[in-house]
Amino acid sequence: MNTQNAEFLKKTLLNLGFGEKLNAELDREMAAKKPEFTLGLQHEFNQKTVDYTLHFKAGDNQDMYFFNKYDATINHKDDAAKNIDQTFYINKGSGITAKEAFNLMQGRAVHKQLYNLEGQKYQAWLTLDDKNLTDNGNKKINHYHENYGYDLEKVIAGKGIRELEDPKAKEELLYSLKKGNVQQITLSGENGDKKYFIAANPQFKTVDLYDHQMKKIKREELLQPKEKSAKNLKQNEQNKEDAPAKKQSRKTKIHV
């Protein structure tokens, strides 16, 4: 068995979020000199079970193995027909992680560093396209490149999100959102702080907003620039002050 190849594959599995549980089984399969083999693993995210099938294939001389792709299935406990399936491909040890795969399959966006055909690095947001499938039934991946103009930090800046006031909390929030997670935020309001959840939405150059029950909320209702919110609050207060006077004016007119 090529130990250097085995160590590279184990490091790849670790980096992609599959941990070290498969290491012993990987060694056995490689030592058996099979032309190809699969390994299975299960994770749970947000109380949902995901099954992974990892595909390995030997090179021409069967001395080296390559981890080319993995299949992911989000299981629906009550109805298997509602299971969600997707295949993710690995390129030279890098690709979509196990958790990122789950987030993509849940309809969210993931920000990745990728490589073009010339081997040059570039940044892009990725989403799965439910309407366009490949020949094998896989959902196509939409790419929103840097020149698309989606800047997550600018989108959420100045909206009264408390986590952005602390550099460390801000860094953690942006990192989590770029991984495709739904992340909790704190918004300051007239009645004190309230908790909500947001997720990146590069297609519409915005973020999706949810309440504590993960029900979608219209972004415009809460995520307003501070200046606009303050102006609205001041206007509301002015309206309240003017209301009695207007009411009295109407009464006087009727009385006359």
Topology, element by element:
Elements: H1 3-15, H2 23-31, E1 36-45, E2 48-58, E3 65-74, E4 84-89, H3 98-105, E5 110-115, E6 121-133, E7 139-145, H4 152-156, H5 167-178, E8 183-189, E9 192-201, E10 206-210, E11 216-217, H6 219-222, H7 226-255
Antiparallel strand pairs: 1-2, 2-3, 3-4, 5-6, 6-7, 8-9, 9-10, 10-11
Query: Which bin fits the share of residues in helices?
Result: 25-40%
Give the low-confidence spans: 228-233, 245-256
The helix count comes to 7
Q: List SSEs in N-to-C order.
A: HHEEEEHEEEHHEEEEHH
State the strand order across the main sheet: 1-2-3-4
State the separation between the terminal residues, measured CA to CA. 103 Å
Summarize the structure.
The chain has 256 residues and is α+β, with helices and mostly antiparallel strands.
